[in-house]
# Entry
Amino acid sequence: MKMQAEDRLWELLNDIDDYLEGGFRRPHASPVRLPVSSAAAPSANSRGGSVETARGPSPAAAEVAAAGETEAGAPEAAELLDPAERKRRLSELAARVTACTHCKLHKTRRKAVPGMGVIDPLVMVIGEGPGADEDASGLPFVGRAGQYLDKWLEAIDLSRHKNAYIANIVKCRPPNNRDPEPAESEACFPYLMEQIALVRPKTILTVGRVASQILIGRFDSIGSLRGRVYQFSGIPLVPTYHPSGVLRNPGYRRPVWEDMKLLRSILTR
Ligand code: URA
# Structure
């Protein structure tokens, strides 16, 4: 059991390494140090059922392994894998996000929105970025769209208080709810990668075009991306419409419900 967890962490961190080797920009890079001992060899991807491989976008995830490291160097794998330690690192990450000035969004935010939920969740929901309600509260998806999202989750027995984690591509509100700019998504992406490694979700649900395109690495419409299962670093990923889009266009309700059933089918497999 413990080995499997180590293997998954290894996969995640090696994937991040691949991004860097692929020549992606490292906006605020520090050397990637894998906090897994050399004895833990990377495994073949163990999560079945995906039909497409999602590759992250352009981002630099260089800070992933840097989180919480001591002066003494890379931490022990066991420390990283211990739930209490992962929670501690998530709190540290939240503090770094709150103080972050890596892109211009920090100048206009009221509160940064790191994320919320439980560790080892059945699903990690990834949205685009905070809106006005989230900017005011510091919590993700708490406005009208967020309440609607909670209903979707509830329909398949998921809840941010029980078995889900919620985060965004960018942690600070883009002014007037515009799309995050590539430089903003890129600057913030290491935080998301670090969250995924610490939270260790069983599945990922991306809501909306922006998050889906970035995590799948394809810049097609959400209508053509959805309806399939991808993989992100060995984790099954289901893309769907953004709840605010569905509130505006009830015609998207049925496809969203199909996507939620798809997600449920992976969880019950
Ligand atoms: N929309 C998002 O994409 N994320 C939030 O947190 C709120 C609204």
